[in-house]
Amino acid sequence: MGIVKNYEKIRDFSIAIVGLGGVGSVTSEMLTRCGIGKLLLFDFDTVSLANMNRLFFTPDQAGMSKVDASQSTLSKINPDVTFECYNYNICTVDNFDDFLSRLSNGGKTQGTPVDLVLSCVDNFDARMTVNQACNELNIKWMESGVSEDAVSGHIQFIIPGQTACYQCAPPLVVASGVKQVKREGVCAASLPTTMGITAGFLAQNVLKYLLDFGTTSYYLGYSAMTDFFPTMIVRPNPSCTNKYCQIRQQEYLEKVERDPSLNLVKEEEKEEPVVHEENEWGIEVVCSVDEEEIVSGLQELTTGVDYAFMRSDEIKPQIAQDEKVVVGDDTDLDELRRQLEGL
Amino acid sequence: MGIVKNYEKIRDFSIAIVGLGGVGSVTSEMLTRCGIGKLLLFDFDTVSLANMNRLFFTPDQAGMSKVDASQSTLSKINPDVTFECYNYNICTVDNFDDFLSRLSNGGKTQGTPVDLVLSCVDNFDARMTVNQACNELNIKWMESGVSEDAVSGHIQFIIPGQTACYQCAPPLVVASGVKQVKREGVCAASLPTTMGITAGFLAQNVLKYLLDFGTTSYYLGYSAMTDFFPTMIVRPNPSCTNKYCQIRQQEYLEKVERDPSLNLVKEEEKEEPVVHEENEWGIEVVCSVDEEEIVSGLQELTTGVDYAFMRSDEIKPQIAQDEKVVVGDDTDLDELRRQLEGL
Q: Residue B318 domain-assigned?
């Protein structure tokens, strides 16, 4: 095979895909066509005609659950792949327990964990749920997303304790880079394209990581408007509010102490950590592969990558005692909440 | 729609797609789902089970012609799109005449030319044929390609007379950027991903150009191994051996003379053309959008973008009289040819 030493190994891997929208469905098809061993598919939505402007689903599947429609298409394409379908919302308490159990036991060999979780969801709660499960179970996962206006997307590889988890910092999104663009509304033209490209990046990264070729992407963004592709690694936040993230960070530090070669960040880079000005999150953008990417990642964080929003629960711990805000009795709490959400 | 002023306009456009392999088929699906007015599909191959490691075709279509299989899938997805299918090789003399006639008359309004031609073929002869037809008919086209090892791809927008045609210079390909990689063999893992990403770039660029949003890409490369995305514009070669390219260049120069605002290259850039050292092709990499991209394009031409090969018929005119090579009677012509091909 030249580039991949042992391609047949792909049959040994099991991957959970959460969300079968424009990104998740195409990713599942790419991995199926590559001959992945097993896919666990999670979604609680049904196919509708409004999905036809993305790839994968077909009009005759309208009304079917997305997991059933996907399994039907995928098993016809490659009958050798094993599928497990879960038509439920992972965010409810009951389902979360089952979700944890499936991730822990859904490996190619029954009773072993899945090799990777892919988050292809379109909302914050589901991403936080995947984050919680993967931190708790210490399973590597990849986050993906397409902006609401459908002209940018990103993928991010989260290794609990080693790279920033979804709660370490506000989510990173790619700025369009074109100031005059009106941001309201969806760019219907870019729905199948931006989502297909993001799915391609995600599946490619899965293959690069599992089959050990090329350089695994830790963060890869895409702006359709300007052909802009930021890359970087974001390190975990030592004061992350996720308990399991803290535990994974501690485990990783101990592991690196025993074997410094395991450190994602080389020693010379650690001496001068690259810190963003006014860095209230303590986020460090560090080198993934070579010098080019440090510079590129850094520039992008300031000029091309934005935080999606500032979360009130994470801003709170940053307020020092003497800076505490005094709220009068006449303050409208709903109005304050609205303002926070608008940030 | 915010980003796109008049999305409904997409129904007015007609596009010819030549080659329905891993890139062309996915591009046709993306454009169909976006609601393109009309697609003219050209291919003379049949679907085989060996195609299942790319997206789009399904095992039950094995044995069907690619154009028929595509039309069947696409018209079910969006019955509003008009299809014209041509199951022939555009490179033979008879078919070439029909190909020219369809490009000239296949517009949404019968008798008008198509709005764009997309080359999604996998061989040099077919690309030269598309180039010849588009130079002759003065139709804009986009070239696309995925490397033989399937870990890099590119798209290129060719506007006859304004940007380099396929004969102006040897084809540009993205170097893998990873020296230790063995280049022999196909990376089966990357077939659906690299081809899907390249198709996404191609369809996105079609939409950006036709619907006038964002910055149209003139050359956009992709290296999966290193997440490397070179961009640039390549200007036409004034001594291009293609007669119609010369005519289009002349027409363009005259047009710019009458209205300098039409020039792709701004005046200040023209004063200091950016020329590659040892530039035997006289190729200039010029700014597409902003300063960043000039630098980026330039770096990539030297470090990340290679010429696919050097063509003997184009090297010839560059040899000055006093540098003429004297070939002895005992020189083995076949050996010389082999050496040239090996360059």
A: no
Domain containing residue A73: 7-223
For an interface test with A, the pick among B29, B33, B198 (most A C-beta atoms closer than 10 Å) comes out as B33
Instruction: Classify strands A172-174 and A14-18 as parallel, antiparallel or unpaired.
Output: unpaired
- The B residues from 181 to 220 touching A (CB cutoff 8 Å) are 181-194, 196-197, 199-201, 203-204, 207-208, 211, 213-215, 217, 220
Nearest residue of chain B to residue A178 (CA atoms): B214
Residue A200 falls within a domain, yes or no?
A: yes
Tokens read off for B181: 């990689």
Is the pLDDT reported for residue B162 higher than 80?
A: yes
Backbone torsions φ then ψ of B220, nearest 5 degrees: -135, 120
Counted residue by residue, chain A has a size of 343
Question: What are A256-303's pLDDT values in tens digits?
Answer: 999 988 887 654 444 444 344 444 444 444 333 333 333 222 323 434
Burial of B123 (0-12, 13-18, 19+ CB in 10 A): exposed
Entry pTM: 0.82
| CATH assignment at residue A57 | 3.40.50.720
What sign results for the dihedral spanned by CA atoms A243, A244, A245, A250? positive
Q: For the packed helices A243-258 and A124-137, what is the interaxial angle rounded to 10 degrees? A: 40
Residue numbers of A annotated as active site: 187
User: For the purposes of burial, counting CB atoms within 10 Å of the CB of A284, is it exposed (0-12), middle (13-18) or buried (19 or more)?
Assistant: buried
The C-alpha R_g of chain A, in whole angstroms, comes to 21
Would B219 be classed as within a structural domain?
Answer: yes
A306 occurs within a structural domain: no
The pLDDT score that the predictor gives to residue B209 is: 97
* CB within 8 Å of chain B, chain A residues 224-263: 224-227, 229, 231
How many structural domains is chain B composed of? 1
Strand partners, A284: A275
Catalytic residue among B85, B165, B187, B287: B187
Known active-site residue B240: no
Q: Is B180 helix (H, G, I), strand (E, B) or coil?
A: coil
Q: What is the pLDDT of residues B36-71, one digit of tens each?
A: 999 999 999 999 999 999 999 999 999 999 999 999
Interface mutation target, options B1, B3, B207, chain A, most CBs of A under 10 Å: B3
pLDDT band at B317; cut points 50, 70, 90: very low
